[in-house]
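User: What would this chain look like folded?
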Amino acid sequence: MMKILKNRISVILAIGLLFIPLKGKAGLFNASEFVLNNGLRVVVVENHKAPLIKHMMWYLAGAADEKRGKGGSAHLLEHLMFRGSKNVKDGKFDQFMTENGAESNAFTSHDMTVYHQFADISRLEALMALAERNGTITQISEIVLEECCRFLAKHVLPNPSLGIRTIHVNIAAAQCLNRNLKESILPVLERYHVPTYMITLELTERTAIEAPKLMLWHMQEFGKIGMGFAMDDYGSGNSNCSYLIRFPFREIKIDKDMTWSYFENPTAKIVIENEIKTIQKLGLPLIMEGVEKKEQSDALEALGVDMIQGYYYGKPMPETECLRYIRRMHFAKEDYGKS
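Assistant: Here's the prediction, encoded as structure tokens.
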């Protein structure tokens, strides 16, 4: 997915996750891997043959680990994977998966026990909302930041002609409640030698109102090292101009539902045009989400919108395909990104 402003391109990185405890290098399927702070080894495999998300958790415990005459413990572990958690009551997760057309299951083998899920890509937003409720959103955010920095270090820093200035990374409300947020993010950038100005942190209005004083402090601290924040999904939920007054955002992203309403509802059109003018008078770069047609892009460009994001310019794509797309936009070296 791209944001385009004349000759400027920013990249939003979306990844699919596959957890599996492999030994040695993750060479199969051109996978990439890294280790989380809690020791969990993460293997990411991109496969775009079907519009699905699949997640697997592999435990190195199976039937071979059971004592003679005391079988069944591995099978018990399999069934424990379907239980509830601190924030999700027993049975609620299965109910959620069924309601969203997704599936979850598990199996036990000789040397491992595996829990796996898959869902249609169209349900990603609902799944992410569940992840935020059950607390796993923090781990997901850590993975995304790691992948973004790896992408920048591998492809962008050695090749400035790609024209990528920043990558936006979403952070969760749970992360922002931690006073050591900066200390948890900076080491990742330092490990990949990524300058702070190349990462823009995106947060929603919910994140901002969870702890406004702490959030303001975070924004000021990150500002001292050159890292800015963008307000994501502006216009959804309780987002309003008070956030523009209270917090030093560097960019504002108007929610896709607002964008669609602009073209469907005369009243919404008036409201949104005034919001756009307000944001422009404040001198804040403005990004309109959810643009899927040329007519929409042309109309928003006529309003002086700074950047446009949506499927009209590009859908989520594999890393190599993304690089080729950017090369065409910026006339970078034709042979870069093919390997």
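The first helix runs from residue 73 to 80. If you want, I can go into more detail on any region.
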